[in-house]
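Let us begin with a simple case.
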Amino acid sequence: MVRLSSKRSLAEKTAFDAVLVVIIGSMLARVINGSEAFFPTLGTGFVLVLLHRLFGVAAYYSHAFGFLVKGTPTVLVENGRLERKNMFWNHISKHDLEEDMRLDAKTEDLSKIRTARLERSGDISFIKTAQS
């Protein structure tokens, strides 16, 4: 089942990937502790893995379907200015953003950030302003 699954699902790149891993883990735990039948549950796990791969292929070919399944990135900082509405809706505090700036962008100065986005994976990416 792991070989049939995509590497993406194990990396849990999106919430969709994480949910799949939790569901399959829960299903297989029932098989291990004997509360569910082995082969039907295993078969259901394979069906879920195949559906995940099918959704991945559909998202590759259809940008709109990709948005539906994987979500969209959200701008948190634009030209050194906080986009507070986007931060509020995504439950990202200024302190969360500052922590990621220190860890990933290696700066504490918000004015050095041209753009920060909350990516579909949940990570925050930073693009710094050009150095003059």
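The second case is a distinct protein. As before, the sequence precedes its structure tokens.
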Amino acid sequence: MPRRIESHWIAGPAGRLEALLEEPENQDPRLAALVCHPHPKHGGTMHNKVVYRLARGLRRAGAVTLRFNFRGVNLSEGAFDDGVGEAGDAAAALEWLRERYPGAPFLLAGFSFGGRVIAKLGCRQPDAALLIVAGFPARLPDTGEYLTCPAPRLFLHSTNDEYGPRETMESLFESLDGRKKLVWIEAQDHFFTGGLDRLEDEAANCWPLPASGDADVGWRAR
């Protein structure tokens, strides 16, 4: 059975959003995942290679994935809003996805700017199964609102991320409350050059989560 791939328009707070829905191959979806792209002002779109590989890994995990373009990107309506309006875009896309797959566990994933957006949104979703944050720009300000979060958080981070050097990222990670895991991926830069296969594999193996307190799989609770 070939996997379903559908283009959609989603009603967002600033106009319609261009979106792409993809179901996993050869199985019914067992969870639903929203995947958000990097900074619109630096060429970020839903077709970014890191976003694509995250989504492909999640489909291997049995997820139906929804990628979309933030406001003002490609055919999505509206204009860039410095992350504030984009969080509203993500909330609208998540609502659409949950209505399409009612009752399915859901997770949020994002790369760089998109990771920052889903960290904001996901920490306001007490029933989120998981947040996957790839390439979190830890060097940038405005991290206080992420410190406490009811959802488990999986951070996938390049060993040579210019926007989140190892010491800075580890310090941020240690400050976070809740269930969390940080995975270092050997790569050349923020965009996981040379490490995309490992990134995809980590996404593919994210579900189901191990039992809480299972110390040998790297998950911690602070």
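The radius of gyration is 16 Å. DSSP finds five helices and nine strands in the chain.
Keep these points in mind for the review questions at the end of the chapter.
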